[in-house]
């Protein structure tokens, strides 16, 4: 096959090592992001509820509200057209959910 036409070959296997070229960020429907995000939020809220009586002020409640808002934002991303933008928003929301959990659980544990 002519090298010029190789880039349009549907049987060509992607060999890119760039993170943003992985299938989860290019061709996924987004369902896996919603499932993993839901599991992460459920675990985080469970941990925050168990630490709630040790938390200073309303720290645990604030974290639970933030986690919920971020997850709702992830679900709202499903309204975007399918593609890299939607998957990028969902991946960013998942990272934000994990970061909020880590920060707030760290604050609660450090305050003890």
Task: Looking at this protein, list some descriptive labels.
112 residues, 0% strand, single chain, mainly alpha
Please summarize what this structure is:
62% of the residues lie in helices and 0% in strands. It has 112 residues and is mostly helical.
What does this structure look like?
- This protein is mainly alpha-helical and 112 residues long.
- Helix content is 62%, strand content 0%.
- The chain has helices at 3-6, 31-51, 59-76, 84-110.
- α2 packs parallel to α4 (84-110).
- It starts with a helix and ends with a helix.
- The relative contact order is 0.16.
List the helices and strands and how they pair.
Layout: H1 3-6, H2 31-51, H3 59-76, H4 84-110
Number of beta strands: 0
Radius of gyration: 19 Å
Strand content is under 5%
What are the low-pLDDT stretches, counting only 5+ consecutive residues below 50? Answer: none
